[in-house]
Design goal:
This protein is α/β, with parallel strands linked by helices. It has 6 helices and 15 strands. The chain has 2 domains: about 70 residues, no CATH class; about 240 residues, Metallo-dependent phosphatases (Purple Acid Phosphatase, chain A, domain 2).
Amino acid sequence: MSALLSQFVALIVVMSIPIVFAYLGIKHAVRLIILHRRGQSRRFAQKEKMFLTAVGFGNVVFVLLLAYGWFWEAHWVERVDVVVHTRVTHPVRIVHLSDLHLEGFGRREARALEIVRSAKPDLILLTGDYVSKETGHTYKEEVKRFFSQLEAPFGVYAVPGNWDGDARALVEGTPVALLTGETARSEIRGINVSITGGWYDMPPPTADSSADLTIYLQHSPDYLAEASDAGYDLYLAGHTHGGQVRIPGFGAVVTLSRFWKKYEAGLYREGRAHLYVNRGLGLEGGWAPRVRLFCRPEVTVIDLLPDAEEGQQRPVGLLER
């Protein structure tokens, strides 16, 4: 079964649960009414009432979870601190943002910017999906307002996602430099850094072998093996939203990745390349539910430290991968 088909089946199963609860509740409520009219309610009433109570409780929990995910968790931004050991001679701090999906400028966006400023990063890197309309026009001014408040001494770089339309119009007049196949170079306290931006859903080009540190930005996380072969040290991506709705003990139901759960969120490694998949800040547009459950919006603070065998990361949201 393909990854996309598996995600579709899993989504159908999850979405069917509240429908089944509602159906059972209605069915047994109707049966209880019929039994009452036939004068048989005393014999069956206790059993039916207990069942209806259980079903009703399940429906109440479902509604409360939706309300929590809509009104609270979707705006409860988390700072996730990650340590990656790689080819640097001294620490370098990066703030990674992804999947803003701006539909206005509210407390979520204000809190994210507050976290970015407090982190005092050397670089700010963004990995796509800044709007929720494919035309890229509906919330263009809100995106520019957000971008205009991003500041880092060694640059702010971004790549487009699959929702951004004319992404260059989004960064025009802001400190953000858009990379679409280009490589930017910076020297951070003696470390020569190359930052290459890729197009969504296309394999990475060969890394700059002359750089001390090579970074690859792409919206999709599906090219870790290729990024490792191409010579990158760090690969940053988004796209999956960490599932946006996660099930305790299982994690993401839908990621829209061709590998489904393989790179759903967090830190991964293959060869020399470290991949970090950001859960995103906003909410998926289109058909997706306007909630987050067990998958808080994220601002990632990545500290690159001199090479060692392992990287370390805090748990992904409320769950460990």
